[in-house]
Amino acid sequence: MRVRKVLRAIAPAILITLTLGIGWGLCAPIKCTDLPSRIIDPGLAGAVSAEMKPATAGVPEYCEVRGTIMPEIKFAVKLPTAWNGKFYMVGGGGFNGSISDGAMMPAVAGGYATAGTDSGHDGQKEPLAKFAYNPPDNSNPNALRKKLDFAYRSYYDTAILAKKIIRTYYGSDIRYAYWVGCSEGGREALLMAQRFPELFNGIIVGAPILNLTKAHMWSLWNPRALLGDGSIAVNQLPFLADAIYKKCDSIDGLVDGLIDDPRTCTFDPAKDLPKCDTASPTCFTAGQMEALKKIYDGVRTSRGELLFPGMPPGAEVLAPASGWDQWLIGNPSRQQAYGESSMQYLCLTPQPGPAWKWTDYNFDTYPARMADNSIIFDMTNPNLTPFKTRGGKIIHYHGWADTALTPLMSINYYEDVLKLLGDRETKSFYKLYLLPGIFHCGGGAGCYDRNDVNIWFDKLVDWVEKGVEPQAVVGSRKDASGKVTRTRPFCAYPLVDRYVGKGDINDAANFTCVKSIPAKVRIEPAMLGPGKKGQFTATMTLPKDHRVKVHDIKAVICEGALAKKGSVGAKGQNIVATFQTQDVLNVPAGAGVAFAVSAIAEIQGQKVSFEGFDTVKTTR
Q1: Structural domains of the chain in order of their starting residue, each with its CATH number
Q2: What's the whole-model pTM score?
């Protein structure tokens, strides 16, 4: 209740600050150096500066405006001389504390007027979440205001002021406004869609910490699991990754170093890892297996109640630069440091302060202490109707191998929007893309780098300005020299990409986006020799409410092999396909190898994939 009173008390003052001002009407363009005298607003903490920046390699000439909004919100606005009539605002990352100038420059190069903010505090002087703490000596009297600035106010204030500066400088209104952000910037993106739907026409939401309070609770759960007997060494990650990928890589129908949907992965540490009394790079103790189970399973109370989803398997690859050793392993780990600071200063009521330690968190009683701050920070409201009604569009992406913020958080939010607004209405303005093998905001084993944000932004612009609804978005993987070595389509959720059985598996052109429909599969014989001459048969039984005809089926594929012949029987509910064992791609030797079959069909204009797997023994 105390938080709500604070918000109600501050809101009128914020509104007055943003609506007052003089000289903001449309006018002729002015010089960059004349801007400071024209920017008069009671919300400003002192004068602003404006400096003309000459053109450099890749970046045209622009006017840079900097200033401070009360009490400590620093902002920057960059105004290219060759303006395209549009506005581009960038989000921050972590706990912010600095302006993301680097993220602004590509937009400036494209002719966009851009803006960014440090969210109301200096991260060098007040690291992590310390900006929200006022010590007993009252050395940080603006602590509460800075907490609210980080939550929401700084982004709104900066956007409003930036639009006024743009109008004053160019003498015309903005045609379109866009927000682009990942991680904390992704939370800020959803903030704009949920609470300020009038400000932006299009929004890019990348790997958002949309449920900030519980995500930071999760970031304490994982290092707690890894304490003591649960501790896992970096040199164990390659073996762990190998065990997971041997179990699950083939389930999507192609062994390619990517797990398309880790929710289908049946990996169980207790069953699928060798056990030993003393840990080594190739075996795991009972304590380590229990730690892994907790991490994959999610945050639970002592009674077993699920509080927050776990981390899907698949991010263990590429050690020593995996998602695991970037975020989970280390003393302190990044998750531990972020979670502790967040609980000390942001998430808990009352505020514990610096004496509180991360091991003090009680998963039975502390979640209730986060309720007031959840109202401030968490962007979990699925009612996006006001944003949709104004014509707004959202593209939301999240890496399946993100160890900083579980992708299940994004899926759960999108599912909530679907339930509230309906499938058709939601997909008319909001698309979610899940990226196999991708770490936090980019990188990993998949086909997306954080610097490739334009693959989303270009689609968003076409959607907002031309009405071209995005479908598959093609991502790429590059080697150290910058050469593209693989491309893959990212499909709009819940569609998944499937290999069509022909052509290079590293070429996105040889994949298609389909709706996955589970089916039962039986492979005969039960022992196969991939790479050797021979045949095997897959019999697929469709769910009771599905039927197919021969002409519906476009291809049947098993582990990269295209069926040589097939038939439909049992009143359209069974599919029988024959494959050449020498056509199977990349399948390892071993017992219990999953052979997945995808029967790609087109039914009433929709592409679907009836799919399932059977386990066989493979030999070389």
Answers
A1: 1-174 (no CATH), 214-374 (no CATH), 517-618 (2.60.40)
A2: 0.94
